[in-house]
Amino acid sequence: MTSSIYSPAADRYENGMKYRRCGRSGILLPEISLGLWHNFGDLNSFANSQAMAHYAFDHGITHFDLANNYGPSNGSAEETFGQIMKKSFLSHRDELFISTKAGHYMWPGPYGEWGSRKNLMASLEQSLKRMNLDYVDIFYSHRYDPDTPLEETLQTLVDIVRQGKALYVGISKYPKEAAKYAFRYLEERNVHCLLYQGRYNLLNQEPEKSGILKQVQKNGTGFIAFSPLAQGLLTDRYINGIPADSRMAQGNTLKEDVLTPHLLQKLKRLNELAQQRGQTLAEMSLAWLLKDELVTSVIVGASSVGQLADNLKAIENTHFSDEELKAIDN
Ligand SMILES: NC(=O)c1ccc[n+]([C@@H]2O[C@H](COP(=O)([O-])OP(=O)(O)OC[C@H]3O[C@@H](n4cnc5c(N)ncnc54)[C@H](OP(=O)(O)O)[C@@H]3O)[C@@H](O)[C@H]2O)c1
Q: Which end of the chain is least crowded, N or C, by CB within 10 Å?
């Protein structure tokens, strides 16, 4: 069987996607971005991964979020994306905004994780090869390293931009004080921090509570939310038990014990509120994040084209009445 050549939808920028300016920058990002943490590894079906990437691009998703260690196995999501790049997206490279990151465990020995110059430089080289790219659009320090001098990590980000291996840089999960330091360090070297990537969803409102959202805004940096559906909890996936093909059933990054009777009750209540709004719980949860202009984009994960299609509908209604907001917070 010969595989057909992919040709993206001609109306991909006219079928509903909205784009938001990323802080004080020239970059616009789609309100919904696609993350490749799960479901793009070498254990997954390539055909399904490819179908999701095609569907995303066909619907105006220009931003694909990766990291060195996404898989499993480590690195295999980048390899999958590299194949999709070669087969489908090569002639559309300039329409894509592709990220990768380094900082979490990637290879054995003292240089395979955290924030050293050694780790970041070597990891980015590997990522570019796996993805069949000459450069990434944004490279992140994936997590704050309390033991490496922050200047070493940040200067490496600056040098990566100077080398042309990344157009922009960002930081992920940095505590507030470290983020403040990073913003200033980078700014003083004329390398603006384009994005702060943090966990933010209806069940974890830390970025708002800690003030990181405001701090990011003050710096003219965009905020991009990861795990906006709390890894699937904020969908109808677990309302009636744990499906065999779900992330929770795999038991790696989402454990069964988080689904307490109290949480389940809350999810059922949120599900009813979503239905009253004419949305699925997934749609309402994404819309709830997007109601705030400080959120540049939400990075969704999906295990099927159907889920991605559902998630894209969120942008049709991101308005909430005061009563709805109160009911959601209760
Ligand atoms: N910077 C960091 O440290 C960091 C950390 C984590 C994630 N991220 C980024 O954020 C991205 C998203 O994270 P995430 O995968 O945890 O996101 P998520 O959107 O919170 O969860 C995705 C999961 O929710 C379920 N789901 C999605 N849409 C659904 C729908 N419409 N209906 C029912 N179920 C649905 C699927 O679970 P099933 O698989 O069970 O179907 C899917 O795999 C990652 O891919 C990565 O790019 C970054």
A: N
Q: Is the CB of 104 under 6 A from ligand 1?
A: no
Work out the mean pLDDT of the chain and round it to a whole number.
97
Whether 302 is in the pocket of ligand 1, judged by its Cβ within 6 Å, is: yes
CA of 247, closest atom in ligand 1 = 40
- Residue 242 is which amino acid? I
Domains of the chain (ranges; CATH) run: 19-329 (3.20.20.100)
Please check the confidence at residue 2 and state whether its pLDDT lies above 60.
no
- Which pLDDT score, from 0 to 100, does residue 134 have? 98
Check: CB of residue 165 under 8 Å from CB of residue 128: yes
Nearest to 299 by CA among 64, 97, 142, 82: 64
| Single-letter amino acid, residue 114 | W
- State in Å: Cα 56 to ligand 1 middle: 14
Q: What percent of the chain has pLDDT over 70?
A: 99
Contact, 322 vs 297, CB < 8 A? Answer: no
Structure confidence at residue 1 as a pLDDT band (50, 70, 90): very low
Q: How far is the CA of 318 from the centre of ligand 1 (A)?
A: 20
- What number is the average pLDDT over the span 61-72? 98
Q: Which of 66, 231, 258 to mutate to test the pocket of ligand 1 (most atoms within 8 A of CB)?
A: 231
